[in-house]
């Protein structure tokens, strides 16, 4: 685990602990702190030890300058924005380190920087194959273990708190929202597709998801997995994914430009129409006990007032004001509807039995899962790739020739 990854993980866990502490859940805060400390001690690697000190210092600094941020005060939108910007910033720094690492490697200067393993989150097919190998063969891949860890983590997050990963953590979602806002500043208005076209377009992401699922489940028999994991293609699969974005072919370039244009044209259009990851999480989110629930007793509309603020705030275009329970696979638990509602008790993210989650609660659960599971995996020795710098340096010049 690199220093940058360590600082991000520990900062996230300290933030989660702080939200609990200032929310009055001191036992929860103590438990997270102890768990993080235990994992750091068990792992006993210098980036985690130094990262803990840096994360604590950074957090203390931010707390002094902006205590309302570290205490999670403010409306749900502010808490969500703080969390999503934190995730995006962490990933941006990690991405930069990954690019510099490869640049050094290609110029014969390997060994000066470590590859951040968390980038393996961007090779979910490899992660899916690794999970399959664990389940069917008890085989734990050593070349990209973080891919399996991150895929597992995101899947668990959807089962617990719906598509909160999409609404709170995904940097592509945040980028899309910013591009959409930018476009609206210069070209106001929306050009939404009609309902008859919207539904088939939404199904495109499920089509992509089921193609990928088919490849993982049926595309390669379990017996072939050990050979695949030992092959050059798997060893260098993260660099292949990186090359798609950083030095795209003409076709890849056209796809990227189209996706960015879509994001500008309609809010969350990539999440809604194309993202296979979002499709998988949408299906898993049906298992989550937490749903947006509207109370007829408190809702202004139920009392005869003309109110649809929740529906107008929803980026997933769900008609919240007409539903008692939002069961949609498009709901990202973003809580914009709750923030927009003038009646405090009218909307909740809650279970059928009445256990409700505040924005702080979602932030804590999400950060706990996204940061604690990788930390525990690292402490158990299942995080760092065993593909050496020498092997990477040898394979990188043949990147475009290597196939599977
Ligand atoms: S229903 Fe509410 S929580 Fe779900 S996507 Fe819409 S605004 Fe977000
Ligand atoms: S914004 Fe609140 S009060 Fe208005 S319709 Fe939605 S739930 Fe009811």
UniProtKB/TrEMBL annotation:
Keyword list, A-Z: Cell membrane, Iron, Iron-sulfur, Membrane, Metal-binding, Transmembrane, Transmembrane helix
Localization annotation: Cell membrane
Entry superkingdom: Bacteria
Transmembrane segments: 6-24, 36-62, 82-106, 146-175, 206-225, 245-265, 362-384
GO molecular function terms noted in the UniProt entry: iron-sulfur cluster binding; metal ion binding
Chief location of this protein within or outside the cell: membrane
Any one annotated GO CC term: plasma membrane
Pfam families: Fer4_5
Residues in 4Fe-4S ferredoxin-type domain copies: 322-352
Alphabetized PANTHER family for the sequence: ELECTRON TRANSPORT PROTEIN, ELECTRON TRANSPORT PROTEIN YCCM-RELATED
Protein name: 4Fe-4S binding protein
Lineage, opening ranks: Bacteria, Pseudomonadati, Pseudomonadota, Gammaproteobacteria, Alteromonadales
């Amino acid at each position: 685990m690199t220093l940058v990854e360590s600082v991000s993980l520990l900062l996230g866990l300290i933030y989660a602990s702080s939200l609990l502490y200032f929310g009055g859940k001191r036992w929860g805060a103590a438990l997270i702190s102890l768990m993080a400390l235990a994992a750091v001690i068990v792992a006993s690697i210098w980036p985690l030890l130094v990262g803990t000190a840096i994360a604590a210092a950074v957090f203390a600094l931010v707390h002094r300058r902006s205590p309302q941020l570290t205490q999670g005060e403010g409306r749900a939108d502010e808490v969500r924005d703080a969390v999503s910007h934190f995730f995006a910033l962490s990933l941006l720094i990690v991405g930069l380190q990954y690019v510099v690492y490869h640049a050094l490697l290609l110029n014969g200067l390997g060994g000066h920087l470590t590859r951040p393993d968390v980038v393996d989150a961007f090779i979910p097919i490899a992660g899916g194959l690794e999970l399959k190998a664990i389940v069917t063969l008890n085989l734990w891949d050593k070349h990209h273990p973080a891919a399996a860890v991150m895929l597992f983590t995101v899947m668990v997050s959807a089962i617990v708190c719906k598509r909160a990963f999409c609404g709170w953590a995904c940097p592509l979602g945040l980028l899309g929202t910013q591009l959409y806002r930018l476009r609206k500043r210069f070209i106001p208005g929306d050009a939404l597709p009609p309902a008859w076209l919207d539904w088939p377009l939404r199904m495109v992401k499920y089509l992509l998801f089921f193609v990928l699922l088919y490849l993982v489940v049926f595309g390669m028999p379990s017996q072939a997995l050990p050979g695949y994991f030992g092959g050059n293609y798997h060893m260098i699969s993260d660099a292949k994914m990186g090359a798609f974005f950083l030095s795209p072919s003409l076709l890849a370039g056209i796809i990227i430009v189209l996706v960015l244009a879509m994001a500008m044209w309609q809010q969350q259009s990539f999440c809604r129409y194309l993202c296979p990851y979002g499709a998988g999480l949408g299906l898993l989110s049906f298992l989550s006990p937490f749903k947006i629930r509207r109370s007829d007793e408190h809702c202004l509309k139920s009392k005869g007032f003309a109110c649809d603020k929740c529906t107008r705030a929803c980026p997933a275009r769900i008609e919240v004001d007409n539903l008692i329970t939002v069961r949609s696979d498009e709901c990202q638990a973003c809580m914009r509807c709750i923030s927009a509602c003038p009646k405090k008790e009218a909307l909740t993210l809650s279970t059928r039995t009445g256990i409700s989650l505040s924005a702080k609660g979602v932030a804590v659960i999400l950060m706990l899962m996204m940061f604690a599971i990788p930390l525990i995996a690292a402490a158990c020795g299942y995080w760092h790739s065993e593909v050496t710098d020498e092997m990477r340096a040898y394979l990188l010049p043949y990147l475009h020739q290597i196939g599977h």
